[in-house]
Amino acid sequence: MLFLRTAALSCRGLTARRSLLAGYTASRTTAAYIQGQSPEPRIREYFYYIDHQGQLFLDDTKMKNFVTCFKDKKFLVFFFSRLRSNQTGRYEEDFPYMSLCGRERNFLRCDDRPVVFTHLLQSPAGSLEAMRDQELLSYCGGGEKLSVLFRPEALYMHPVSGRVYHPCTEQGGGVGLVRSALAIELSPFFVYAQEDSQSGQPTHFLWGEQKHRLTNELAGFLPTLEGGSGQQGELL
Asked: How far, in Å, CA of 190 to CA of 118, rounded?
């Protein structure tokens, strides 16, 4: 993990690297930490943040943008394939998720959800999904290696924020956010009741020459109040 992170950091901005090397103490959450700290012998702890576009950063990176986010696919697949809820008794409130690598603890907080779907992909040739003409939703920069089967009927549009969600793995919290750019691409296919005229909740989704009735199965796992955090209402 250290090798992958070091390689990934070589592609990021100089500011983020300096923060890591200097042991920058975070001030963006209520938690106090130092990147790479060792609370126990042979244990190292690092702290990350994922935004609503699915971009991963060291949490203490001052300028969070495409230049400073992690982009190495191997690192992202390694990190997110080990994602789970934080039940260590350390930083659970501020960093509710983590990715473990041996004796290395990688804590994660998120703007909304730890899994952010970024692309809609065709299933790999020869796979069962491809034979059934089914697509995949890819998340967090991992391509087909970080993906779930696309279920059009399970898309959920939040009634307050307007953000779109889709089921993900249990390890990722069960609910993933659809990145805004992808949500915009999908938005023309939502069907609303005639009296709502797109001002209410969609009732169906047109996809694959079918009209899918939306199940709204994710409604009970997301906050409905304005300003609610997507970290609440987890499926785990």
From this structure: 18
Question: DSSP assignment of 62-89, as one string?
Answer: SS-STTTS---HHHHHHHHHTEEE--SS
Instruction: Identify the DSSP state of 123.
Output: P
- pLDDT digits over 175-202, tens only? 999 999 999 999 999 999 876 566 689 9
The answer to whether 205 touches 151, Cβ cutoff 8 Å, is: no
Q: Is 101 helix (H, G, I), strand (E, B) or coil?
A: strand
Q: What is the pLDDT of residues 113-128, one digit of tens each?
A: 999 999 999 876 555 5
Task: Enter the DSSP assignment of 234.
Answer: -
Alpha carbon distance 134, 111 (integer Å): 30
pTM attached to this predicted model: 0.81
**Alpha helices for the chain (secondary structure H):** 2-9, 14-21, 73-81, 128-131, 180-186
